[in-house]
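Priority: medium. Attachment 1 of 2:
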């Protein structure tokens, strides 16, 4: 970033310099507008849990509450604190990924085992596995891949208010790569929202999900985590029918 430029130092032959300064100015304006937008979104994300926390704390201070009411308000406190914690965790992870400060430990591991480990935490929700017989080991950071799976599975379940089974599959049709996918038969994503889904803080505002909480950070984090393994991520979805999110991981070099 350059500092103040003395305009009287320009002469008639400086059109290249003027153009460069103009471009830099334009870039800085875009950065500022991007940051302002992020700040607005963040403010909004902080305001909701803080309002709920405030309300519960005030109600808890009422002297003649019975144990049941007290437990109810404490549960709201706990839920909203967890929401703030997960917002903070996601923001820190995103920042560290973007500034290259995220510690990545690459190893070869069995993706089917990892999927089953992660899926166990979602029991008893009905999950259906579609794994081929032979699956090469993948190369990547096992913990980071587990975070992608957690996010995709919790979204698939969260946006399936009908409770229908979620499918998790592996495909090995592309040599050198392993594709993992999570398919649900839930709300799906309106077409108009689809281009923005991986943007930070982006949430679909359709009335079919107005009571479903979230920060809009999960998918942007997933995409960056997958890219950190050299893979790529995408989805296909039909509003009202369901979605299929998929990502690729490099297969470990065979010895
Ligand atoms: P969050 O769930 O916290 O809002 P995400 O980044 O995980 O944030 O998702 C962004 C938006 O994409 C969500 O608000 C939701 O409307 C939509 N979405 C994500 N996954 C699914 C899914 N499996 N089915 C339907 N909509 C989804």
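Attachment 2 of 2:
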């Amino acid at each position: 970033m350059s500092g103040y430029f003395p305009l009287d130092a320009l002469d008639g032959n400086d059109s290249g310099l003027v153009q460069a300064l103009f471009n830099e100015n334009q870039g800085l304006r875009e950065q500022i507008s991007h940051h302002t937008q992020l700040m607005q979104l963040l403010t909004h994300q902080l305001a909701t849990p803080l309002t709920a926390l405030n309300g519960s704390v005030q109600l808890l201070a009422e002297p003649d509450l019975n144990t049941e009411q007290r437990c109810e308000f404490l549960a709201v406190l706990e839920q909203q604190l967890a929401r703030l914690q997960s917002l903070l965790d996601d923001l820190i992870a995103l920042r560290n990924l973007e500034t290259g400060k995220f510690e990545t430990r690459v190893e070869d591991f069995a993706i089917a085992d990892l999927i089953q480990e992660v899926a166990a935490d979602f029991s008893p929700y009905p999950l259906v596995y579609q794994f081929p017989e032979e699956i090469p080991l993948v190369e990547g950071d096992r913990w980071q891949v587990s975070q992608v799976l957690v996010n995709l599975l919790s979204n698939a379940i969260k946006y399936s208010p009908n409770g229908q089974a979620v499918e998790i599959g592996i495909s090995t049709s592309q040599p050198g790569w392993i594709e993992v996918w999570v398919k649900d038969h839930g709300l799906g994503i309106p077409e108009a929202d689809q281009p923005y889904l991986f943007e930070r803080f982006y949430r679909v505002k359709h009335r079919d999900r107005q009571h479903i909480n979230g920060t809009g950070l999960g998918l942007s984090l997933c995409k960056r985590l997958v890219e950190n393994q050299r893979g790529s991520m995408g989805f296909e979805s039909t509003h009202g029918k369901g979605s299929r999110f998929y990502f690729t991981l490099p297969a470990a070099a065979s010895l």
